[in-house]
Amino acid sequence: MMFDQAAKLRTIASSIKETETSLKEPYIVTVTSGKGGVGKSTLSLNLSIALAALGKKVLLVDGDSNLANLDVLLGMSPPVRLSNVLRGEKSIKEAMFPVWRGLKIIPGSSGDIRFPLFDTEVQLKLFEELKLLYDFDFVFLDTGAGLNSEVVTSALNTDATLVITTPEPTAIMDAYAVIKTVCLEANGNLNLNLIVNSAWSPIEADETGKKLQTVVKHFLKTQIHYLGFVPYDRNVHQAVIEQQPVLLRFPKSVSAQYIHKIAQLLVRQVNVFLKERVI
Hints:
This protein is an alpha/beta fold. It is about 50% helix and about 15% strand. The chain contains eleven helices and eight strands. The protein has helices at about 1-20, 40-55, 70-75, 80-85, 120-130, 150-155, 170-185, 200-220, 235-240, 245-250, 255-279, and strands at about 25-30, 60, 95-100, 105, 140, 160-165, 190-200, 225-230. Strands 3-4-2-5-1-6-7-8 form an eight-stranded mixed beta sheet, sandwiched between helices. Helix 2 packs across helix 11. Residues about 1-20 have low confidence and may be disordered.
């Protein structure tokens, strides 16, 4: 009898273990830019929609400590925000809001004088909670513009860092400053990716991408993967004014087409990573 009970317990324990190991953590991406005004949040939002269109479950978190704008881009006035989660007032799932099929966001705060100190300890606790969101394939953390400890901590504790720049020299220099800082902190052990936004031509975009790749490889002894570019498109500006994602407001626009291509490339890259992580 005792033998039968022990056998049953082992069977139950084995099934629980199999269930636990079958759960995979979401692929968490830090999205940063260095310079503000390069379209980082707009691209984060639309890239998330493109991934959702591919059947992926995506969570987009507005990680700007106190100048968040994802809710503005969507014309939302959410009653629960990231600050409520950090203060322990709401759970992380209570702060999620559906945007489109397969896509939810956690809006940030803007001008909240009670925003919790977003220090390393608070960030690490947030990352641990995000890793437990097994229902999602991707989690994007849209950081605030500029180089600060929040961006560095985020880059060091997520699966990948996605750097957004435009072909403007100031944007390129600021992007390199961010890359350099996080690389030095991580001793070069980072999964770095680059998107050139609002480019006037493929030649201009590719030159920008190659320039950053060359400099990063030469001076930092590491690689940054060029995921592609998004061409300048007036429809993006119009969509922002109308507080709608360009992929939904102008689904056939040139910018939407290129964002879909980047999403497909990112999925292929991540599939390899996830297989290695499971193994």
